[in-house]
């Protein structure tokens, strides 16, 4: 996590920071996944001959899962930005009470208070 010092940034700034981190992660993971997929077509090349094809399959599945997670994070951050625009950011979507500032600092995209999480 590369969050700014707590208390110094507005929710918008924290979300923007998280957003750029998530976007960067998606880029890296998408590139890695493309490499793995491309590499798996080249396994007939002798110097890349890999007796552990299952390792590649595992890494591919792992990377795809991380990529899906990063995309979900980005969706959550988009949703948080919409809440800011709508003026309902920081309100628990379940019980309607305010989410504590500490929780929003740790999880800028949180949509539920700690009791409802
Ligand atoms: Zn709640």
UniProtKB/TrEMBL annotation:
Pfam families cross-referenced by the UniProt entry: zf-dskA_traR (PF01258)
Top-level division of the source organism's lineage: Bacteria
Start and end residues, zinc fingers (dksA C4-type): 92-116
Domain Zinc finger DksA/TraR C4-type: 87-117
Key words, A-Z: Metal-binding, Zinc, Zinc-finger
InterPro entries: Znf_DskA_TraR, Znf_DskA_TraR_CS
Keyword rRNA-binding: no
Protein name: TraR/DksA family transcriptional regulator
Organism: Rhodococcus kronopolitis
């Amino acid at each position: 996590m590369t969050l700014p010092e707590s208390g110094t940034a507005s929710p918008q700034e924290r979300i923007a920071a998280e957003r750029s981190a998530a976007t960067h992660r998606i880029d890296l993971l998408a590139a890695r996944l493309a490499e793995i997929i491309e590499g798996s077509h080249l396994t007939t090349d002798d110097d890349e001959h890999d007796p552990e094809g299952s390792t590649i399959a595992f890494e591919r599945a792992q990377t795809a899962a991380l990529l899906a997670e990063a995309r979900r994070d980005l969706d959550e951050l988009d949703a948080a930005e919409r809440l800011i625009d709508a003026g309902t950011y920081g309100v628990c979507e379940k019980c309607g009470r305010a989410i504590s500032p500490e929780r929003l600092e740790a999880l800028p995209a949180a949509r539920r208070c700690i009791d409802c999480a």
